[in-house]
Design brief:
179 residues, mainly beta, 3-stranded antiparallel β-sheet, 2 helices, serine-type endopeptidase activity, Trypsin_dom, TRYPSIN_SER, Peptidase S1 domain-containing protein
Length: 179
């Protein structure tokens, strides 16, 4: 086992192509919940199972996205036998449902076109003078989409955490001290 994290670039192989490599007697062992990838002489191998398959973002912008989980294959980097991975998108609802069932706390349910916005406010010694808003600068309304305040005097150094799903766009955070 390697003491350093290794990575390899592989190319997507359609399930139809992958099933041609692995099928016997008209069976199709590669299901919709799986995906395949290969490149000459490059593959995942024993000990890699459970590791992520990441999709690099276009032109190096943004974070990579996990699309697969290393699962199985015939040997390691054998010609005509792609590596087989669990297709994360196929199981996304189950993953979310299962993970959220064990968190015991708020579990975000944002749509694909949304992001989770988290606002944390640490107040000073006079929290009752503090208020804040988040406004969507791209929206037609100037009404805040999130807000906080009315902290009791005895909540010195209170931390306020608010989570909400928001659509792509530009937002403005405003904090006020009434003193």
């Amino acid at each position: 086992m390697s003491e350093i994290l290794l990575e390899a670039e592989v190319d997507y192989v359609t399930n139809e192509q992958c099933n041609k490599a692995y099928s016997e007697d008209d069976e199709e062992p590669v299901t919709d919940g799986m995906m395949c990838a290969a490149r000459d002489g490059i593959d995942t191998c024993q000990g890699d199972s459970g590791g992520p398959m990441m999709l690099a973002s276009d032109e190096g912008e943004g974070d990579p996205i996990q699309v697969g989980i290393t699962s199985w294959g015939y040997g390691c980097a054998k010609p005509n036998f792609p590596g087989v991975y669990t297709r994360v998108s196929y199981y996304a609802d189950w993953i979310k449902e299962t993970a959220c069932a064990f968190t015991g706390e708020f579990c975000p349910t944002c749509e694909v076109s949304q992001s989770l916005m988290k606002v944390i406010v640490h107040t000073d010694r006079w929290p009752d003078e503090t208020s804040w808003t988040v406004t969507n600068k791209c929206g037609s309304s100037s009404d805040p989409i999130m807000w906080g305040g009315d902290y009791p005097k005895d909540s010195k150094y209170t931390t306020e955490v608010t989570l909400d799903c928001v659509s792509e766009g530009e937002y403005e955070f405003t904090i006020e001290d009434s003193y």
